[in-house]
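Example record for the data management plan.
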Amino acid sequence: MLAAILQNDFDLSYQNWEEACKKFNIDYNVIDLIKEDWSEKAQSRDYDIYLSCPPGREEIFKKLYDERIYILDKILGKFVYPGFNEISLHENKRYLSYWLRANKINHPRTYVFYRKEEADVFAKSIELPVVGKMNIGASGKGVIIFKDREELLRYIHRAFSTGIRQEWGPNLKMGDYRRRILNIIKKPEIISRKLTIYKKSFNELQKGFVVFQEYIEHDFEWRVVKIGNSFFGHQKVKQGDKASGTKGIDYIAPPPELLDFVNNICVKYKFNSMAIDLFEDKKRGYLINEMQCIFGHVQPYICEKDGNPGRFLLKDGKWEFEEGMFNTNLSYDLRLQHVVQLHKKINSK
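Corresponding structural encoding:
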């Protein structure tokens, strides 16, 4: 088996794929998908699998990566993991809202305006609070909860004049400053990388459109993850007005009906690797807030039951919990195990 790892513009997630390939003795080459010769490099050898790692900081590179994945996956018919269907939803809140609405999947009502006059009418009549979102931006950055109508109107004015920026400094919601400072002292190279990240976030200007979302009262968000046949889940703890980006986790196992909800979506749309963030609504049930095919996690595992790390597996129509450490190497090891299984299945036909 020969793998091509599709490097993005800046993030180091391709190194996680490298680590996984080394563990499983899989030969690989890294291809910089941003370079002009990406197509020639991607077709220069008979690769069995193309391992993707979509970016999520700058819209220009997100769009570039999506377009080139589309060519590999949909036009050339290459085996890309995660594939275009998953990547197209990743860090694109506009498209995700269209996709959820078109497929009649429960989600908070989302509004996308490309005309200032229409956005102003919305702002003057919508019930507050309402959530403003940057189209791209992880860890809750670029998310503002508007409780004041004048502030909302000023936000719209900026979006259609000078443009709006997401938060670009340290994530203060994460806390534990002592540990974070010690990590920087031990690894001073972190400072340079962090400054580059902050610069990229600062330079990411959204202009000419706005994205708003219905505010859902909540004390937490569910995160449910599917990688192959493995399912994981926990609650993302709310700090202030938001649960996203706090890195706080309450290891409460997801109920069977929530696992069923996520599994049905992933089966229907053939998602191999997907993290889904959801709200619970008393009247409407589970509402999808965001979907990411690649995600970070600071903890060594992302699911536990009765104090034991593990995963959920669907066996004979029932969810069973299996203890173990399945999220090593930011879950890339598990993803590669699934890739190997899919490759064997394809070759056996």
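Summary line stored alongside the record: The CA atoms of residues 145 and 260 lie 31 Å apart.
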